């Protein structure tokens, strides 16, 4: 079984992935942030490194999805291959930070990969307002995220909402994270777990 957690930067994907993995005894697969050789360069010079970064993520995520499918285990994944292709890469292209040539190359590669991977059994989307995202990003204090602008986050949020409205590859659970605290309030986490339980029990 493959569960995936999607959402904007700072929405709480990694934290929720850890909590759910612990509760359900799922194996967590996290986004490769620490070892990503392009991330720091990208945030300092987006137009120079956008294509490199997106190809790195696409490669990493594709490999991850293949491993998930081959493992036969119950796995929860922090961020999906769809987010790179439907949100981050098109946003960089629209902002003029990725050339037409690079974007077309990227989109063609994703299309090929998409035909070879299965969608998650359940997609969990964490919906968040911009103020909440900004607060969470500041709280965790990653140095390379200090230069992220509110405009950039807003553009991403708009694309997330547009993508999730048309998502039809499998079961979808939308969780509004603005007014819940699944880290410090056990009842909030319990509510999330109950909603996921209801979705999963309908899978089989």
Automatic annotation (TrEMBL):
Pfam family, one: dNK
Active site, UniProt feature: 78 (proton acceptor)
Listed InterPro entries: DCK/DGK, Deoxyribonucleoside_kinase, DNK_dom, P-loop_NTPase
GO cellular component labels: cytoplasm
Domain of life where this protein originates: Bacteria
Amino-acid positions noted as binding substrate in the UniProt annotation, renumbered to this chain: 31, 43, 54, 79, 84, 145
Domain annotation Deoxynucleoside kinase: ranges: 3-198
One Gene Ontology MF term: ATP binding
Keywords attached to this entry: ATP-binding, Kinase, Nucleotide-binding, Transferase
Amino-acid positions noted as binding ATP in the UniProt annotation, renumbered to this chain: 7-15
Family per similarity comment: Belongs to the DCK/DGK family.
Protein name as annotated: Deoxynucleoside kinase
Organism: Flavobacterium suncheonense GH29-5 = DSM 17707
């Amino acid at each position: 079984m493959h569960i995936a957690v999607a959402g904007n930067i700072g929405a709480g994907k990694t934290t929720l992935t850890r909590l759910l993995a612990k509760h359900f005894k799922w194996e967590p697969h996290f986004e490769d942030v620490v070892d990503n050789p392009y991330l720091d360069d990208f945030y300092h010079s987006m137009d120079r490194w956008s294509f490199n970064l997106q190809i790195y993520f696409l490669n990493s995520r594709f490999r991850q999805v293949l491993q998930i499918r081959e493992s036969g285990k119950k796995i929860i994944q922090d961020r999906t291959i769809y987010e790179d292709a439907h949100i981050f890469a098109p946003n960089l292209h629209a902002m003029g930070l990725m050339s037409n040539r690079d974007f077309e190359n990227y989109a063609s590669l994703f299309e090929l990969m998409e035909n070879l991977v299965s969608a998650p059994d359940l997609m969990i989307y964490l919906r968040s307002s911009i103020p909440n995202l900004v607060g969470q990003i500041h709280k965790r204090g990653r140095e390379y995220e200090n230069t992220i602008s509110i405009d950039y986050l807003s553009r991403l949020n708009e694309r997330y909402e547009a993508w999730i409205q048309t998502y039809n590859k499998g079961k979808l659970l939308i969780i509004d994270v603005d007014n819940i605290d699944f880290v410090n309030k056990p009842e909030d986490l319990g509510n999330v777990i109950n909603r996921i339980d209801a979705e999963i029990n309908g899978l089989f």
